[in-house]
Amino acid sequence: MASTTASAALPADPAADAGKAEKPPSPLRAKRRRQLAQWGFIAPAVLFMALFFGYPLVRNIVMSFQDYSPSTFFTGEAPFNGLDNWRNVFDDGLFGKALWQTVLFTVGSLAGQFCIGLALAVFFSRRFPLNGILRSLILLPWLVPMVVSGIVWRRIFDQDTGVLNSFLGTLGLGGDTPWLTSTSMALVSVILVNIWIGIPFNMVILYGGLQEVPKELHEAAALDGASAWRTFRSVTLPVLKPVITVVLVLGFMSTVKILDLVLALTDGGPADSTQTLGTLTYQNSFVQMDFGAGAVVGNVLILISAVFAVFYLRANRNEGK
Amino acid sequence: MTEPSPDGRTRRRGRRTRRIAVPLTVVSAIVAGTVLSGCGRQQDPDVYTVMNSSTDESYHRWDGDTLKRCGKELGITIEQQSVPASQLMTKALRMASSKSLPDVLQLDASEMPTFAEAGGLIPLKDLGLTTTDIPDGIVDFGSYDGKYYGAARTVNTLALFYNKDILDKAGLAVPTTWDEMRETAAELTQGKRYGLALSAGGAEDGVFQFTPFMWSNGGDETKLDSPEVAGALDYWKALLKDGSLSKSTVNWTQADVNDQFMAGNAAMMINGPWQVETLNAKKGLDWGIAEIPVPKAGDDSVGPLGGGILTVPNTGDGEREKKAAEIIGCMAGEQEQITYALNSWMVPANTRAAAVWRTKAPELAALAGQVSTARSRTAKVGARWSSVSLALQSAFQSALTGESSEAALKRAQQRVTSGN
User: Which of A25, B53, B185, B311 is 20 to 30 A from B226 in CA distance terms?
Assistant: First the structure.
């Protein structure tokens, strides 16, 4: 750690030496000094990134090639074992299952959150009484901690004593749905809860975006005799596109790594039917204490996020042109 | 960083340099400070730490009182540090790598082998503690690879809790065999009430509850695909098929099971003595406790031993480790065991303490019987228990949601074997 400290202070030193020179500053020297100053301003950010993002990332990659067990914490030794961890994880049927369920979970959650969020945003962009109050009420799921939501929903979903089934029962709609207890329903239920949680975020950002759509465009479209749907598709959506990209990419990144909600709702069960890459990492690292295997799954997760981050950056660059 | 310079120009230059240098130095200092403060920890020679998972108010208070008494007896100050049970292991491992382990570490007995295998624990006999008066089963419970690492103050296990009013009204006796339990449960299932509640959740809770059925039937964790294990799982499936168990069983923790029992949604339940305090707080609930029914009359009811054990982590400081053993000696002393057992409704580990306890808590006598035949989960597979447990929970959940017991358990055994 001492070396990091030293290198961080380093850029200042040559400038100090330059200060001792007696000649008036040449343009070249002034330029160099300006550059140094620029680097000086960047340095804290670079240092921060390197320490808190770069270092863990590199360590995680290295760890996935190591036999990293509880004894490592005592001896400090984690022998390299080549591709053993990777082979073990990929050979385990659970990885494929968790990957597929992560895809379903992410796509399902994003589609639901986005569509409902957009519909609500459009709805609230009209003026009507109590608009503000209703809009702030919809934010509530966002304010409730994820684990609390999970625990409450687990009670609501209980097959025999849950509120949801009692309600459906009184409506005469069966009321015996095995929300969290059947291997085919559990993932759907978890997705439903996540949609409920994600709607406010989508609505708020999209609502903000809708405020940016110039009124004149709508008026022009109305003069041209465009229908409401046509106006939405040809005027609103294209203007909203950059906001939509942001919402979807941010939503993707927070959804793909889901862990807390699943742990609170189902613990990955029943029979691994709600196991995702996030829960698998947790299980490998903190239940089985096989940190190498946990790192492998974690790396896959990072890789997936990174691919989408690149898409996001590219989309933004195109917007700039 | 800048030397004093005679003319104004350089000073101005110096000032600019300083303007850059100052934030950088501050940042670097903060970084270095944070990093360094994590390492060195000055230890006060008369202050010792005990780390446990007593985050509940009552447990934290009971342990605090014990430590105060022991501190007085040994002439030292003992501090209590409590972290949630699920984080205790990882927290302890992190402390090991930063050389800041506590003097005494209370681990769940099923986690101890992992820690011992890593070389993190000192055998208690090396530090002068003996196992006199402790039954073999409980010595094994605190041992790994033939070495005694953990002293239990009390142990717990599972038992059958029943609602006396409901059983009396139906004129039914407390079941003692699997067949009796199946019939009784079916008869007690009425309307919204189930005959029996147990936890088959996807975590250690569910596995803990499966073990008495697996073991009493002659199966064990070294061979998950044996007919005995399948028989136990088939018994669970039969209870579910009869409708005597709720379908939510696969999503319930042991605390959920207790809630259902207290709410009158279940006439009987499989649970542990740590629920007794909550059960007693509920007015109008008249409950009883019995040993878990066995496959055939005359079989032993073998339950799982549970509970925390006190260990001495390997800190490299021999003097402190010796003192830590003295702390354990005091905490696990006869009188402290009885006090703790009566508070927490668990059974004292020491034979003589257990005898005293039995006279003071006669209503829990069935529990003492169950403990005498109970065994630890890690005795046979050691540190591999976590892998076995994960495979097993996936298997019984698959079987309870439709798959055949044989197929599910076969896959579980393959998973355990390939994981080695």
Answer: B185
Instruction: Give the H or E element holding residue B269.
Output: strand B266-271
Q: Which of B68, B84, B85, B86 has its CA nearest to residue B76?
A: B68
Between chain A and chain B, the number of residue pairs with CB atoms below 8 A apart is 175
Residue B331 lies in a domain: yes
- A281 touches A298 (CB < 8 A): yes
In a domain, A70, yes or no: no
Only one residue has tokens 């691919």, namely A307
> What are the tokens at B227?
């007919």
Question: Does A151 share its domain with A206?
Answer: yes
| A146 and A26 assigned to the same domain | no
| Structural domain contains residue A258 | yes
Mean pLDDT calculated for residue range A6-25: 48
Q: How far is A170 from chain B (nearest CA, A)?
A: 15
Mutate to test the interface with B, among A38, A156, A160 (most CBs of B within 10 A): A160
Q: Which pLDDT tens digit goes with each residue over A131-164?
A: 888 888 888 888 889 889 998 999 999 888 889 9
Question: Contact B253/A158 with Cβ under 8 angstroms?
Answer: no
Q: What is the mean pLDDT of residues B163-189?
A: 95
Q: Does residue B344 sit in the same domain as residue B411?
A: no
Segment 2-21 of chain A within 8 Å of chain B by CB: 2, 4-5, 8-9, 11-13, 15-16, 18-20
Q: Do B414 and B366 have their domain in common?
A: no
Could B401 and A9 be called an inter-chain contact, meaning their C-beta atoms sit closer than 8 Å? Answer: no
Q: B414: phi > 0 → left, psi -120 to 50 → alpha, else beta; which?
A: alpha
Going by C-beta distance under 8 Å and a sequence separation of 6 or more, which residues neighbour residue A282? A259, A263, A294
Tell me: do B409 and B276 sit in the same domain.
Answer: yes
Q: Decide if A77 touches B, using CB distance below 8 A.
A: no
pTM of the entire structure? 0.83
Q: For residue B150, what are the domain limits?
A: 47-156+306-373
Cα distances from B222 to residues A39, A88, A161, B193, in angstroms, run 61, 21, 38, 37
What is the tens place of the pLDDT at every residue in B83-106?
998 889 999 999 998 889 999 999
Q: Is residue A60 part of a domain?
A: no
Could you give the CA distance from residue B181 to residue A185 in angstroms, rounded to a whole number? 31
Nearest to A44 among B23, B35, B96 (CB): B23
Report ipTM for this prediction: 0.78
- B382-406 burial, b at 16+ Cβ within 10 Å, e below that, comes to ebbbbbbbbbbbbbbbbbbbebebe
Domain count, chain B: 2
Same domain, yes or no: B300 and B310: no
Q: Do the beta carbons of residue B138 and residue B155 sit within 8 Å? A: yes
Could you report the per-residue pLDDT of A162-207, keeping only the tens digit for each?
Answer: 899 889 988 888 778 889 988 889 999 999 999 999 999 999 999 9
Q: Are A124 and A271 contained in the same domain? A: yes
Co-location of B385 and B409 in the same domain: yes
CB < 8 Å to A41, chain B: 20
Mark whether A232 and A124 lie in a shared domain: yes
Q: How far apart are CA A119 and CA A230, in angstroms?
A: 15
CA geometry: angle B227, B232, B236, nearest 5 deg: 140
Q: Of B384, B387, B379, B370, which is closest to residue B150 (Cα–Cα)?
A: B379
Domain of A101, CATH number, reads 1.10.3720.10
Domain that holds residue A253: 88-320
Maximum C-alpha span of chain A: 93
Same domain, B255 and B395: yes
Residue B121 sits in the same domain as residue B254? no
Summarised one tens digit per residue, pLDDT across range A248-286 is 988 998 899 999 999 999 988 799 999 999 999 999 998
**Contact state of A269 with B386 under an 8 Å Cβ cutoff:** no
B87 and B140 assigned to the same domain = yes
Does A171 share its domain with A276? Answer: yes
Asked whether residue B57 is assigned to any structural domain, the reply reads: yes
